[in-house]
Amino acid sequence: MLKGIKALLFLLSMTLTHAFGDQIGTHSITGGDEFAYQEDGVLHMLVGSSEQKGSEQVWVLRHYTQKGDEMQTLKKIDYFYQAQSYQNEYLSRIDGKIAIQASDIKVPETEILDTVLWRAENEWNAQWEDRYQEWIADEVNRDIFLNHEISTDCANVGFFLRWIFAREHRLPIASTMAGSGAAITNHTMRVAWRNLPTAENWHDDQRFRAVLDFVADNTFTGTLRVDSYPIKINQEALTPGSYYLRAPVTGGIGHLVFIHQFDHERSVVTSLESTLPSRVRRLSVRNINFAGPYSESLSIRRHRWAIENNGRITLRAARQHQSYSMEQFAENFTRQGRNHHLEVLYRLNFHFTDAMITSWYRGMIARSLSERVDVVFDGRQFCLENNCEPGSSNYNSWSTPVRDARIISQIDDYLDFCFDSETCMRDHNSWYANWHRVTIRQGNVNFYITVDFFYQAYQNQELSSDPRDRVSHRWGIIQDL
Length: 481
Prior knowledge:
Blueprint: H1 2-20, E1 33-39, E2 42-53, E3 56-66, E4 73-80, H2 83-94, H3 126-138, E5 151-152, H4 154-168, E6 174-176, E7 183-185, H5 206-218, H6 221-226, E8 228-230, E9 243-246, E10 255-263, E11 268-273, E12 279-280, E13 284-287, E14 298-303, E15 306-309, E16 312-315, H7 340-347, H8 354-385, H9 393-398, H10 401-418, H11 422-425, H12 428-435, E17 437-442, E18 445-450, H13 451-459, H14 471-474
Antiparallel strand pairs: 1-2, 2-3, 3-4, 5-12, 6-7, 8-14, 9-10, 9-14, 10-11, 11-13, 15-16, 17-18
Helix pairs in contact: 8-10
């Protein structure tokens, strides 16, 4: 009973840490839910986080173990579609356990001394960073992992590309491991890797592919935040290979938007993205909306440089990078009524008129509403034949609360801009309430939803995100058709 009380108090202390930022003796590497304990000579580390799966939110609980001179390994990963289910499982796992503090955790960073993946022949500097950015923009495409049958989730995209480039150019590399805070580096060698065949090309190198699998198991968006730093928002710092990162801290939902290319003619920045669960897939290419405000859980970042110091690979301190800056978090970051996305584009020297901005906003909202049409219809058909009770994986796959909130946020940004723009206001009322309509089919009946109707239905809590509801109810039409 006493041990259970200690575990509950520990969880409470972590909650207070997340809310107020005081460490009060807790174990947290990434700022999320973390708990470590010893049992029968084995170190157990639990890492919980909230992350994005497609357009929806899931809770993820990773369980790592470590014994003797071995490196930590992922024992189990569970996904939950309700916060309460996640919390219940987390509490049951730590019930009766005595927490180990971070200072007492000693986890090996290699299993075979004096044997490494590769010796660094070069050092990260501005020139190598430029070459990395050029490689990302000119040579990396959405099929890079699909072509070589490599599974990815969102964070893997950032980690894998950095590891591949470092291997190809004999640069140092280090990735912080979830739970322990120890690192996987180019000096790491596991017993399981020692006899695996190698090759000149990274994708034919079985040992290196095993390393990527190990990196994937032991990292996520929370550790990517640890391994990166917030940057100045200008053309020199915000480049291909940078991150627009939602981290699972202080209530954030983890997701990596990997910055790929800049198109000044169309005034867009494009991304390469993957999602949970990890699988072999073609990466998504999207036009990035740098929505704000930026915070501990949402920021624009770059990867910290790995350095070799006395034979050990570590990451350079964030503040020691030339591009480091906290300017994006300032209350006065946005100027002249611009929202965060437009402010970023202005600072990147993108040039556009109010007419172009109006078209961009309206196009984004139109695409989002059109995508919702398909999700609502397909979800309704699926749930007519399958169990979609709240809390089930089916319910969370087809419900749309996060999607709906994002569309409303897009409309809010558009309205804030439009009310200050004479160009936008010239035909705003016509577009908002009449011109742009999405066509909804229910049985033999078609009906039309305007942007204004959708917005008002959401504000009046008449819009449904429940995939079991009739299509008309999903769009805020209360009466039966």
